[in-house]
Amino acid sequence: MYSMRRERFLVEATLLDYTDGDSLDISSSVMSINVKRDYISNSFPLFVVNLRLTEELRSKIRDNEVTLDLKVDKYQDLDDEQTEETETPVITGRVMDIVIKPYKKPFSTANIREEDDEDTSLQTNTISLIDYQFSGIPEQLILKNIEVVNEIYENAKISDILINIISKTETGKIFIDTVDNKEREDSLLIPPMNIIPAIKFLQEYYGIYNSKMGLFFDLTGTYIFKHFNKSRSYTNTFEIIVPEAIDIDDDIIFTSIQIDEDDINARLYLKNSPNIDSSTEISMDTIGQTAVFSSYDENFETVKRIYSNDTSNEKTRYFWNSNQNKVLEESILNTVRISQFTSIPLANIDPNYFNIDTLYTFSTPQESVDGIYMLIESDFSFSTTDKLHYTGITNLTLAKVE
User: Fold this and answer.
1) Cα–Cα distance between 100 and 94 in angstroms, integer?
2) What is the mean pLDDT of residues 99-122?
3) Less crowded by CB within 10 Å, the N or C end of the chain?
4) Cβ contact 287:196 at 8 Å
5) Phi and psi at residue 301, in whole multiples of 5°?
6) Where are the domains of the chain?
7) Is 163 helix (H, G, I), strand (E, B) or coil?
């Protein structure tokens, strides 16, 4: 049984200052939270939190060692007007609870603004605020890659070795696509490595999969998967349906996404088939590229560089680099052409419904569109106008599995 689901969100933000040893509730300063999950190129979700701060807070973040504790809860939005008047919405679940460690000090994104007190006649209460971006990766996820793996396995299967490695740091969900290497290894030594390079070591020398591998530490768990896998074992479904004929009386089914009674499977009706791009190219790194994040551009795209022993304090190396020869590293980058892909925007729904282990299917009057799709990117954001209730936008980029 499916039912309409429209969710809104509440955000709690705390600035943790390790220099001064204090914490500040800055929930009212959060204007939006943007998260980018690129499953093809990256191993972590990337966060940009847009804040509106006083000069004092800006200086605190700039000069001190700080992190940002973010909690996002969801509640069902049955009536927009009624919801706005509800002082304490009934929380139905938690979307995220993370601490973001900035990889770069926040920078000003706009001119100083002046916001008046509710009583505009009290000009003396005018406060100067500045728009800032707080960018980084959840500290909890980064810590998962700090664990050093140095193990000897005997008479072991690759699948069991993977579970053993990931279980050293992941206490939540672990999803692993069925491995292609079914052999037992009589003796297998993993040299001292962090978890990401250890798993990529297994892929390179023992062949976890016979094609490209993805490794992603997500908010909901850890995912090890085979790119464009046709035989994946899925744990939930997302159906996208375009009816053959549309009755005007059924317009209500197009207003929001539907979720089943177990809060697992989702369904979306569209009046028209989604736009399908006939061809696109995706660059994938065969042996593991180090991404050094320095900033985002105006379109929320990451600025990447191949590791070149840059020790600047503004840059942090998060990803495994198996070869520091830049020319060689770039020469092995592999390009895959996808015949069909599309983007599906979703409003006011928990983004955690949609992950690598979700089966995405299209049922439309167009046979060329119908089929099974895989998730290659997921971007979502929470934004507010009243500094209390947040709306959500999730955008899924899906590629057809040929």
Assistant:
1) 17
2) 53
3) N
4) no
5) -95, 140
6) 2-138, 145-212, 293-331
7) helix
Distance CA 216, CA 188 (A): 24
pLDDT tens digits for 131-170?
A: 888 888 898 988 888 888 999 999 999 999 999 999 999 9
pLDDT of 197 reads 85
* Average pLDDT for the chain: 79
- pLDDT beyond 60 at 82: no
CB atoms within 10 A of CB 323: 16
Residue given tokens 């003396």 in the structure block: 124
Does the pLDDT at position 123 exceed 50?
A: no
What pLDDT, on the 0 to 100 scale, is given for residue 142? 84
Average pLDDT over residues 279-306: 43
How far is it, in rounded angstroms, from Cα 20 to Cα 15? 11
* Two tokens, residue 75: 């509640």
Taking Cα atoms as reference points, which of 219, 1, 2 lies closest to residue 93? Answer: 219
User: Residue 22 is encoded by which pair of tokens?
Assistant: 């204090």
Distance CA 316, CA 259 (A): 39
The pair of three-digit structure tokens given for residue 159, joined into one six-digit string = 């699948």
List the structure tokens of 276.
């399908």
Helices 158-166 & 195-206 angle (0-180, nearest 10): 170
Q: Closest by alpha carbon to 217, among 70, 356, 375, 43?
A: 43
Give CA–CA dist 64/42, Å, rounded. 28
Question: How many other CB atoms sit within 10 Å of the CB of residue 205?
Answer: 10
Structure tokens given for 66: 């700080």
If DSSP codes are grouped into helix, strand and coil, which group holds residue 160? helix
Total Cβ atoms within 10 A of residue 220: 15
Cα–Cα distance measured from residue 37 to residue 377, given in angstroms and rounded to the nearest whole number: 6
Mean pLDDT throughout 292-297?
38
Separation CA 197–CA 322 (nearest Å): 8
CB 321 within 8 A of CB 307: yes
Structure tokens at 8: 């809104």
Contacts of 260 (CB under 8 A, 6+ apart): 1, 2, 3, 266, 267
